Task: inverse folding
C-alpha cells in the first residue's frame, strides 16, 4: 500500500519524533531522502534506525552509522528488532530528541524493513500484525496508534514510503513476488546484485557452486523438485520466487558496505564489493 506525500505529511503532523526504519544490509537503497526533507520542513525530530543488524557484520553496521552521522549529519542507530538488539537504546534516543509528554513516535519506512516487528518488540506484546512478504495477510493496511507505556504512543504506518533510488528493491518490496509477471527477470537481477557483493551467497544458502543466475535458478528448481511434467524442464519461476522471499527474510547473506571516509576506519574487505 503506497500513499501520496500529502498523506505522509498528514501523518508526520501527528507525531513528535519520526523513526525511519531501513534495512541495514543496504541502508541507502531502502532510505527515503524525500521523507527526511519533509521532516525538516515540518520541524519533526528525525531518527534513522538501521534494522536487521544481526544479518551483517557488526563493524560494517557501525561503519554505516558513522558514515550517516559524519557525512550526512543524520541521527542513526543500529538495531535488530527481531533479536531485540539496540532497541532499549533506541527508546532512550527517542526520548532524548523530545521532552514532550505524552510523546507520539511515528514508525515509517518502505515495506519489509521490520517496522511492525519493531513495534511489537517495543510494546512488549503482539501489538502490530506482521507478515513475511508485501501484500500478504496481516500486512499493515492503515495507520494505527499503540500505547506502549511510559507516556509514549507509537504510530504504525503502512509501508507507504516508496523506494526512491534502487529499481531492484522497488521490484521486490513494492508488490508481492507471487503477482509478478516475470519473477525470473526480477530474481535474475537480484542474483547478480547479491553475487557482486558476496560471490558465495548462493553456495551458503543452497549449496549451489555458481554465480550464474540461470544456473542457480535451474539447480534450485531441480533440487526442490519443481519440474514441468510435459518436457521435464525446471520451473524457474518457482525458484525465482523462493530466492526473492529468502532474500527478504535474510536467508541469503548479503550486504553493501558504506563508502570510506577519513573517519570511517572500516577494513578494506568491506569497503568494496567482493568478486569471485
Result:
Amino acid at each position: 500500500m503506497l500513499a501520496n506525500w500529502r498523506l505522509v505529511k498528514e501523518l508526520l503532523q501527528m507525531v513528535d519524533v519520526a523513526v525511519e526504519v531501513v534495512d541495514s544490509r543496504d541502508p541507502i537503497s531502502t532510505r527515503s531522502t524525500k521523507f527526511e526533507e519533509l521532516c525538516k520542513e515540518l520541524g519533526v525530530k528525525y531518527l534513522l534506525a538501521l534494522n536487521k543488524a544481526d544479518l551483517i557484520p557488526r563493524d560494517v553496521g557501525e561503519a554505516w552509522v558513522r558514515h550517516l552521522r559524519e557525512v550526512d549529519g543524520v541521527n542513526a542507530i543500529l538495531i535488530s528488532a527481531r533479536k531485540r538488539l539496540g532497541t532499549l537504546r533506541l527508546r532512550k534516543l527517542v526520548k532524548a530528541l523530545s521532552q514532550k509528554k505524552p510523546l507520539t513516535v511515528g514508525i515509517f519506512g518502505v515495506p519489509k524493513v521490520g517496522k511492525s516487528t519493531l513495534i511489537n518488540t517495543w510494546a512488549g506484546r503482539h501489538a502490530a500484525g506482521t507478515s513475511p512478504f508485501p501484500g500478504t495477510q496481516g500486512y499493515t493496511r492503515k495507520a494505527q496508534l499503540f500505547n506502549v507505556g511510559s507516556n509514549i504512543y507509537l504510530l504504525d504506518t503502512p509501508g507507504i514510503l516508496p523506494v526512491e533510488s534502487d529499481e531492484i528493491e522497488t521490484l521486490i518490496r513494492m508488490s508481492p513476488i507471487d503477482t509478478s509477471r516475470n519473477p525470473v527477470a526480477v530474481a535474475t537481477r537480484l542474483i547478480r546484485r547479491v553475487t557482486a557483493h558476496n560471490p558465495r551467497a548462493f553456495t551458503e544458502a543452497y549449496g549451489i557452486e555458481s554465480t550464474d543466475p540461470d544456473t542457480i535458478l535451474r539447480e534450485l528448481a531441480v533440487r526442490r523438485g519443481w519440474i514441468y511434467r510435459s518436457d521435464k524442464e525446471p520451473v524457474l519461476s518457482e525458484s525465482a520466487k523462493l530466492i526473492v522471499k529468502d532474500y527478504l527474510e535474510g536467508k541469503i547473506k548479503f550486504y553493501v558496505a558504506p563508502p570510506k571516509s577519513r573517519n570511517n576506519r572500516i577494513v578494506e574487505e568491506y569497503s568494496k564489493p567482493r568478486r569471485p
Remarks:
- Residues 183-197 form the longest helix (15 residues).
